[in-house]
């Protein structure tokens, strides 16, 4: 047994050096020193974990890992059981293609038991009890790669995607679609894994399934998700929806500020596909005067979503012609390659950068003097092309008519830019015309520098 164990250790060491993937039988090494067993590359998933979630306390053992996934079994799972390795690795790779990455590690942790320990546990990068991992924990139903053994884990992965994509916690759309998003999620995953038999099975199952929301006998898959998938962009329309919501929908720190209404839901899905989906929504859900008003409001509140619709607002870009002033400029001056004039040059590929700030109290401000006093009720920032730790996190907006006496009109804390050169819009409750607007940034991501590609201010008239 000792010789065989040493041979297995040697094989694992060779696989670790290869750096691509590793298959483990590490539960047999419990009595060996860590210096013998621990041959993993830096950043590898732990070989064993003591569960600390959902009243679980079992010790689970890593069976396999690669750059996409880490698979763990409890001691009772009958080995060898290897089909999950490739299946979940490819699944997470497809998730990344459609929805982006999830956290710094960006790895799916799949935990399996031989017998049920209770309801499926799902953790995300925002959950400390899961170790801030994208993780699910459930029991096998037999050992075959079919039915619930693949559907149930994908339901868990769908929940991870819904509640932690694009660096934001929760789902703004859940109040509208309830638990139905998994229907198209499973169909899409099986389709892209070229598991057509399973995709056809999911199609048949969900094509006749009804829900009671937003009205009785709503066919979410048949009348909404599948027509969008088939006729309006496939998987990319799904990923675009999540991306647009994260980019434009109001947030409070790393969570959404409130739930979507139906008009906003249709507006953002239309933006995700590039097509006006109101006719499809009317056919799928019915329609009401209330939803029509919500849709018109959504088009006014989020006018930059890219699909054909008649504008219901008049937007004035107040930054045009403004004079920019900052509390500290780039070392090469305002006109330098990364000077303060880049803040308002209407070019998202340029940026303003200034360093030498206090890491713990940023204490930086930037100011626009408008051509004349005007009401600002919307503004946006565009993040820089690199270095997220330079992004602003906390700030306060002030207005003034003499440049000396200032009135606070907006405060933001714990803001997150989930991408580079990402534009985020902010609505302000303000009815007073000011000639000067100043933003005081009190905290960034920890750097001694601030960078912003663009800062523009607007008056939106509905």
Automatic annotation (TrEMBL):
Q: Which domain of life is it from?
A: Bacteria
**InterPro entries registered for this protein in UniProt:** FA58C (IPR000421), Galactose-bd-like_sf (IPR008979)
One Pfam family this chain carries?
F5_F8_type_C
- Which residues belong to any copy of the F5/8 type C domain? 325-454
Report the coiled-coil segments: none
- What protein name does the entry list? F5/8 type C domain-containing protein
Q: Which organism is it from?
A: Flavobacterium hydrocarbonoxydans
């Amino acid at each position: 047994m000792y010789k065989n164990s040493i041979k297995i250790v040697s094989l694992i060491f060779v696989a670790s050096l290869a750096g691509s993937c590793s298959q483990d039988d590490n539960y047999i090494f419990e009595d060996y020193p860590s210096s013998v067993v621990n041959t993993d590359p830096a950043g590898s998933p732990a070989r064993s974990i003591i569960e600390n979630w959902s009243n679980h306390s079992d010790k689970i053992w890593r069976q396999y890992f690669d750059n996409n996934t880490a698979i763990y079994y409890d001691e009772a799972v009958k080995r060898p059981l290897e089909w999950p390795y490739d299946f979940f690795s490819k699944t997470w790779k497809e998730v990344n293609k459609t929805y982006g990455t999830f956290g710094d590690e960006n790895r799916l942790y799949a935990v399996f038991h031989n017998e049920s320990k209770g309801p499926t546990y799902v953790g995300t990068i925002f959950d400390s009890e899961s170790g801030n991992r994208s993780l699910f924990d459930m029991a096998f139903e037999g050992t075959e790669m079919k039915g619930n053994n693949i559907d149930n884990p994908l339901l868990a992965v769908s929940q991870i995607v819904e509640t932690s994509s694009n660096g934001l916690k929760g789902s703004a759309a859940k109040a509208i679609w309830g638990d139905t998003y998994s229907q198209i999620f499973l169909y899409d995953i099986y389709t892209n894994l070229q598991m057509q038999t399973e995709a056809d099975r999911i199609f048949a199952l969900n094509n006749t399934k009804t829900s009671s929301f937003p009205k009785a006998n709503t066919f979410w898959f048949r009348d909404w998700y599948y027509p969008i998938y088939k006729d309006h962009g496939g998987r990319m329309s799904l990923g675009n929806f999540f991306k647009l919501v994260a980019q434009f929908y109001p947030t409070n720190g790393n969570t959404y500020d409130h739930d979507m209404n139906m008009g906003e839901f249709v507006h953002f899905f239309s933006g995700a596909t590039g097509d006006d989906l109101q006719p499809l929504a009317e056919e799928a859900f019915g329609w009401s005067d209330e939803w029509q008003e919500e849709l018109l409001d959504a088009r006014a509140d989020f006018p930059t979503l890219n699909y054909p619709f008649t504008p219901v607002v008049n937007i004035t870009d107040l930054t045009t012609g403004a004079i920019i002033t900052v509390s500290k400029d780039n070392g090469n001056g305002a006109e330098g390659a990364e000077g303060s004039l880049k803040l308002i040059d209407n070019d998202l590929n340029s940026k303003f950068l200034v360093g030498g700030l206090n890491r713990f109290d940023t204490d930086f401000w930037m100011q626009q003097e408008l051509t004349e006093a005007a009401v600002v009720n919307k503004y946006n920032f565009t993040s820089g092309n690199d270095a997220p730790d330079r992004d602003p996190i906390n700030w306060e907006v002030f207005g003034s008519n003499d440049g000396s006496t200032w009135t606070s009109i907006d405060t933001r804390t714990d803001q997150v830019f989930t991408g580079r050169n990402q534009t985020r819009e902010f609505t302000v409750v303000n009815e007073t015309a000011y000639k000067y607007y100043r933003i005081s940034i009190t905290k960034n991501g920890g750097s001694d520098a601030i960078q912003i590609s663009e800062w523009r201010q607007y008056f939106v008239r509905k």
